[in-house]
């Protein structure tokens, strides 16, 4: 009996160590690729920011789609931030996806909207559109009132009604930098249509000072849960996405702010309404179409911060979000599993998919197993405790140390020098990631896997507090 | 196993020490940056009104205010940026050029020869602002073959403004690395005569340059280019034909024969352009074409045809009659959409 336990413990010990070393290796490579990329922009003076992108002759018109479901708190701020975007030719389409609160009434009253009989082309079938409204004070602002069908369905309805060759999806609770659209459209315009989708860098807005849809001052929240998410966002966007984008292997661009070629989005059937992670799903479908048609097209990530979003402030909401995200991830991977190690899809099949399967999808199971192993091994003592200590050290390296390095990378690359207090605050919270935040998120992500396996589909919702306002009051 | 533990442990220690050192470096950089900013702001406060007098009121150039240190030059650049972007008076441009040539020549030369890419790009941007292209002739880096795309574009942009013959020469050299978007920006800087002169080399250009040239002459209303555009209406490249049609439309030329020809095309983009061009053709002649296009299989053509009809004097009345008598629901829908003016709320009732 002892030899069986011994064998199992040794096997798992070695397995966890090998996995951790591989994961650390991948993250270090990504970190170096990000440094190399960001170094190019380092110390560039941007006196005249992208003036050429303000000339309608040079740019392409963009329809901005804002799906809104019960967003009565943040929607006005969000629309204000969209109206103040510096971009020559744009229309804003807010899609009220059957909200049960006063979202529709608030938008109609605030922007003095009237119903119009707009003719549109149903490229993609959606739930019934009840009415279309146009603002009398901002004629380029539209409101679609439709039956509830989820975010993907709302975006598809917006795509049908939109007039322009590119559309930009923005979350109802997001605040954009005034130059956000210029920056995200830049790779599309510069490539002469070669780039068919681009995603922006998302930052956490909780605690920041916002008025009339503009960020007045960035303040780092005092809540450890929010600070941990700031670190997490930095790590995900600065390291992962830059590296994958470099080789046209990015499988996710955030639904909070991304631009797509309408023609290509329609070609892949728009957003999928049968998956939870519609933002990942459309990117995977686009990649698939590009590789299958051998088209010379790219999907890119813009590293400069362009969009601010509200993250969950309570454990309950965060759990719900992470479960949903992970379920969405595994659904998309499973749906397109045939792409894995398929030579037809090149680097996407041989690098991207295996990475997402092993590190992102099943990583939480292995890591959570690692946590359990460490506890058991420490209790059993002897040789196992050595495995446990090594695993703990690798976890520290993998989690906290890499997070801290990302903080430095961000401060250096963006020329944003933090104060000593801010640096100490964020890095001390990042150091504790290993003992509370990481196990929690790993557990929720494992729940996401279970929910996928039992095919459970409830969409969940996030109770909005209105970016910054509630927290500012509390602080 | 113990060795592995010790190795990882030391690796963590090294990482933590690196983190502390990098944090200290950042804090030091921050204090340095703050100090530099204070110096820059001090220079700007001290010299702002003197520079305003010099650039705008023909005031004297105060020698002691001429920037010498790096921080002072940055301060000057920030002040000068207002005059570069907001004012187009010739004498202001000449003065900006004079200061850059007389006093900042060595500074920009050093930046251009720097191994750091951002330094070179910053210098090129300022040369584009001030027009001190003399520095480029003395710079070793400019002679080098290997340059990044952004550097090539900035160089072209500088020459497009200040030295058109070098621009032409470099354009042929770099045309394969440019995109249509880059070319449109570059062509936009050029004078009508230079722009028109490019039609003589039209066949030597790659497609994206051809497209950009046609679009730019149309955008800049370069009437001198009309004869060249008319020569291209039967080009083999469909994209060129469509863009030429758009340019002819933008320039407001009546081309009835071309309009009829396009309206019978198999590609909807050409039929769409026919619907646009019909705007300049007499309604009595264009009416049959437009009502045929109103029943086109492509909705964009139908909507355009309806829009063009509505723009003619008797157009709205004709559309209203059409709605009452027609049987094609798609065409009726397009006509109705056009008749309902956006922004005019009177029709709501």
UniProtKB/TrEMBL annotation, chain A:
It comes from the Bacteria. The chain crosses the membrane at residues 12-35, 243-261, 355-380, 387-414, 434-454. CDD domains: CESA_like. Residues 63-264 form the Glycosyltransferase 2-like domain. The keyword DNA-binding does not apply. GO terms for molecular function: glycosyltransferase activity. Keywords: Glycosyltransferase, Membrane, Transferase, Transmembrane, Transmembrane helix. The keyword Transmembrane helix applies. Pfam families: Glycos_transf_2 (PF00535). Belongs to the glycosyltransferase 2 family. This is Glycosyltransferase family 2 protein. It comes from Lysinibacillus halotolerans.
UniProtKB/TrEMBL annotation, chain B:
This is HEAT repeat domain-containing protein. InterPro entries: ARM-like, ARM-type_fold. It comes from Lysinibacillus halotolerans.
